[in-house]
Amino acid sequence: MDLRRVRAIASKEFIQVGRDPRSLAMAIFIPMLLLIMFGYVLDLDVNHVPMVVWNQDGSKTSTDFLLDFKNSKYFNIKAYFDNYRDIRGWVDSGKTLMAMVIPKDFSKYINSNQISPVQLIVDGSDSNTATIAMSYVNAVVAGYNTSLINDALAAQGVERSSPIEVRPRIWFNEDLKSRNFIIPGLIAVIMMVIAALLTSLTVAREWERGTMEQLISTPVTARELIFGKFIPYFVIGMVDLLVAVAMALFIFRVPFRGNIVELFALSGIFLLGALMMGILISIGAKNQLLASQIAIMTTFMPAFLLSGFMYAISNMPQVIQVITYIIPARYFITILKGIYLKGVGFSVLWKPALFLLIFGLLMVSIANKKFKKKVA
Questions:
Q1: What are φ and ψ of residue 215, in 5° steps?
Q2: Which pLDDT belongs to residue 164?
Q3: Among the listed residues 115, 231, 84, 255, the one whose alpha carbon sits nearest the alpha carbon of residue 177
Q4: Quick check: 155 pLDDT over 90?
Q5: How would you write the chain as a 3-class SS string?
Q6: Using CA atoms, how far apart are residues 288 and 301, in angstroms rounded to an integer?
Q7: Higher pLDDT pick, 210 / 181
Q8: Which residue of 13, 28, 220, 281 shows the fewest CB atoms closer than 10 Å?
Q9: Average pLDDT of the residues in 365-374
């Protein structure tokens, strides 16, 4: 390759982007907008679960039992009722996720050391939220039962600790905040979509505007043209990554435990494949609208659904799990989470980095072979 010709093509593309406010907005502001929107909307933490109560017992014992729910950050008792009609109305309208009905003989059962049933009505429309909320209820009930047992033993003068005590120690995301693992994955999805979308328009734009014929008539080779168009968007991609990292750190307060140099180096490998994939789409489509549609379909949906960003790959059908191995975002998300949350480096992340490198070189090779300096 003649570096002078590559530099000339790159300079031309920089000027093209600078003169096109839509491309500049797509390159800089759309990633910021998507990160803010998804960063605040995608929150898998379940707190302040709305609950209504029908306390048929009305005793101090049942009131003390409900205090454990009132004092918990996971529940928010919205109202108290004395019939099923109102409870059903609130559940049907979506005003509450669950309702608890305490029987009238609750205190009698408890004081006589018998098992007392407590009815829990749960709206299962959102199965994931309902399952988490029920686990919270079981945890509160288990704590209440333990306190009753300890009080009973203390009244008899017997002191005994639990035979098994679980002491969990959480690594990497100590607060169990979903935002801490959503934001790094979101960066990977956005970078994949934006990178492929930007470059998917670059060659198609030349065909639509009739300037490709002029480039074909010059001594510029296909490889020089491709890399000349690649360089400006690589720089823009690294700027987008810098902005995303800064937003994750200062706006969303996601901990960063790794090495910033390794982050940008491995992200550069990812951008190589994503940008070249967009150029390949642009070469094949020769139409900006078609190229953008293909870029969205081949990047956003796979990156969002099949990369492990939102859904655990281990829970997917075996056939789908095999397909995920060809999704670049899967490996980039592994890299980002490893650097952000675990603080690991290239010695641990070399396998996903190697796949991204192979993917990038494959895209480069196919794009070079696909592009022909011919008008038709």
A1: -70, -35
A2: 56
A3: 255
A4: no
A5: CCHHHHHHHHHHHHHHHHHCHHHHHHHHHHHHHHHHHHHHHCCCCCCCEEEEEEECCCCHHHHHHHHHHHCCCCEEEEEECCCHHHHHHHHHHCCCCEEEEECCCHHHHHHCCCCCCCEEEECCCCHHHHHHHHHHHHHHHHHHHHHHHHHHHHHCCCCCCCCCCCCCCCCCCCCCCHHHHHHHHHHHHHHHHHHHHHHHCHHHHHHHHCCHHHHHCCCCCHHHHHHHHHHHHHHHHHHHHHHHHHHHHHCCCCCCCCCHHHHHHHHHHHHHHHHHHHHHHHHHHCCHHHHHHHHHHHHHHHHHHCCCCCCCHHHCCHHHHHHHHHCHHHHHHHHHHHHHHHCCCHHHHHHHHHHHHHHHHHHHHHHHHHCCCCCC
A6: 20
A7: 181
A8: 28
A9: 83
- Mean residue pLDDT of the chain comes to 87
Position 199 scores a pLDDT of: 86
Are the C-beta atoms of residues 236 and 321 closer than 8 Å to each other?
no
276: its two tokens: 């070249």
Instruction: Decide if pLDDT at 229 tops 80.
Output: yes
Q: What is the pLDDT of residue 376?
A: 56
In the chain the domains, ranked by start, together with CATH numbers, are 3-43+177-370 (no CATH), 49-155 (3.40.1710.10)
Side by side, which strands form the sheet with 49-55? 75-80, 49-55, 98-102, 119-122
pLDDT at residue 179, rounded to an integer: 85
Pick the range with the lowest mean pLDDT from 24-28, 58-62, 244-248: 24-28
**pLDDT tens digit sequence for 125-135:** 888 888 889 99
Rounded to an integer, what is the distance from CA 343 to the centroid of its chain? Answer: 19
49-55 and 119-122 beta bridge pairing: unpaired
Count CB atoms within 10 A of the CB of residue 48. 10
- For residue 104, how far is the Cα from the chain centroid? 46
pTM over 0.85: no
